[in-house]
């Protein structure tokens, strides 16, 4: 049995598409994009993947080439379809090229931070979310299960699971060059997920003595604050507490946080916004004297180091083996790749 036909990926990433454009695509997508595309005949199956580096739609379609992109656009809500039509850097991968792209994404080879720790779980979560929404069938199941299996093996061989290669850690390293952590004794972190934790742990290694943590999830914020030896701030009080901070870090999702433009933060020296869409734009505009760092600026300062080339080569070797087997519908153990019971 050969691999499922008609699989594709349409997307944009940080290499060619500005952060502001990616933010717009995410903000306009809403929570029902997957069922909406299927209901409006955009594709037979759909998995929507959105991370800080990329916005992608995986699917299975009876159409081929640029027609896939056009059919998807027509099936989208009007504003979202227009945004995709105007976006710069839209790419299309079909067939085995789609498998190769997703496997490299899940491995961390196409990330801003090579081998980043979050991406494998993000890809898995995107598939699971689509499955719960009724967006997956045999094509997406075989594609994602095969790519996730390959990515896990490639990451092990490359040693990507060691340490913490992540956007949060990378951002902390760059932020420390702007405002060294030992000089910043009042740091507030908004968020309590993987990126927030990675930033905080790297900052502590860099000399951060303490910090304040605030999140929409009080339980998770409290847990992270305890781990860091810091202080948990109730979500409803984050803005008032920010008035005395000199570094404010957001690792939140969900879009812009409202901010009173009349409220200035005189002590604030650095604003780090790792959200997609960004969450601190209004606050940054109200405090123009503070330095700022977001994902677009972070991408400019992230380069592959020479010591990472060997790890990349090892990962690619493993992916090539899995790719050839996927092309013939077989797993690495030589058995046919079958769809698990729903």
CATH superfamily label of the largest domain: Glutamyl-tRNA reductase, N-terminal domain
Strand content: 5-15%
Number of strands: 10
CATH class identity of the largest domain = Alpha Beta
- Summing up helix and strand content along with how strands pair, one would put the structural category as alpha/beta
By CATH, the architecture of the largest domain is named 2-Layer Sandwich
Q: How far is the N terminus from the C terminus?
A: 20 Å
Radius of gyration: 21 Å
Mean pLDDT value: 89
The major β-sheet equals: 6 strands, parallel
Summarize the structure.
By secondary structure, the chain is of the alpha/beta class. Helix content is 46%, strand content 13%. The protein folds into two domains: 7-162 and 308-327, Glutamyl-tRNA reductase, N-terminal domain (Beta Polymerase, domain 2, 2-Layer Sandwich), CATH 3.30.460.30; 167-300, Rossmann fold, CATH 3.40.50.720.
